[in-house]
Design the sequence.
């Protein structure tokens, strides 16, 4: 049985067996679910293609039931093609796709929770943009999804991926860590660098509160997907340059758990604190 409960164990298994991180995650999935390698791969490919479909079918004319979310992804697209993009083509595309996916969630379109619906835009934005702009095929992207899944599994087991339990650090933070590790892998990082990419990303999101206006996964959730995706890019590049987190990756996850426990309930998806109780939020409710 292939079992891991920490990022260090995941790294050690990959190094001891002389295989890539994604292979350990796939084997663990096969053992736990009694799937064959092909069945496990096909399931992950199905999820990746669902992400691609959701991105392709984005409709900028749609509004959420509240009429407060929708259309920003198209605005960002128009800005990106205007020639005034401040961040470069790749980063601009990542930002755009993250917003589009978050809006699709608010408009009740089909998305992939990665790891949650509220953070559904981070991982697809990074991976889909990478496939489009780099010499990568679906097989590599599926392998990257396995890496992301392994990181997410450890976070879920040792901390939380739910805003109601740990604040938005548990949702956008976890998604950003997953995307950072996946991107580092795609760029050829070894197992250790993958884990440090995840740690660097999660460290930058510690303490992020969950304060949805009107209790809806719209404000500030959708735009946070864009920030989380860009944070993943920065963290992956730091790790690829050989920079390591001064705090061990698993200690970062444990710190997120402790911080989440210390957050008051008003800042954990109740809509009773933070931005949700601002003067502007009162107008949002009208």
Sequence:
């Amino acid at each position: 049985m292939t079992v891991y409960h920490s990022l260090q164990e995941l790294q050690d298994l990959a190094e001891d067996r002389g295989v890539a991180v994604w292979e350990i995650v796939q084997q663990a999935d096969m053992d736990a679910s009694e799937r064959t390698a092909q069945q496990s791969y096909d399931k992950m490919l199905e999820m990746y293609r669902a992400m691609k479909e959701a991105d392709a079918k984005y409709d900028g004319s749609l509004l959420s039931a509240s009429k407060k979310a929708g259309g920003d992804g198209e605005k960002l697209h128009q800005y990106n093609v205007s020639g005034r993009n401040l961040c470069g083509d790749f980063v601009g595309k990542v930002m755009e796709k993250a917003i589009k996916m978050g809006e699709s969630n608010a408009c009740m379109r089909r998305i992939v929770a990665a790891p949650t619906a509220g953070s559904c835009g981070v991982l697809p934005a990074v991976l889909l943009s990478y496939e489009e702009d780099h010499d990568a095929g679906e097989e590599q992207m599926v392998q990257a999804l396995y890496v992301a899944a392994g990181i997410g599994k450890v976070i879920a087991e040792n901390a939380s991926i739910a805003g109601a339990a740990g604040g938005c650090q548990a949702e956008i933070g976890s998604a950003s860590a997953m995307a950072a590790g996946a991107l580092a892998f795609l760029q050829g990082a070894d197992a250790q660098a993958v884990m440090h990419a995840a740690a660097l990303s999660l460290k930058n999101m510690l303490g992020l509160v969950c304060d949805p206006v009107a209790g809806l996964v719209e404000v500030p959730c959708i735009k946070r997907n864009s920030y989380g995706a860009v944070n993943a890019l920065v963290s992956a590049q730091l790790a690829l340059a050989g920079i390591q987190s001064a705090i061990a990756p698993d200690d970062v996850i444990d710190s997120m758990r402790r911080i989440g426990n210390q957050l008051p309930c008003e800042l954990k998806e109740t809509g009773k604190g933070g931005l949700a109780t601002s003067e502007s939020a009162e107008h949002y409710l009208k």
User: Anything to note?
Assistant: The chain has 13 helices and no strands. Residues 7-284 form a domain with the 2-methylcitrate dehydratase PrpD fold (CATH 1.10.4100). The longest helix spans residues 138-158.
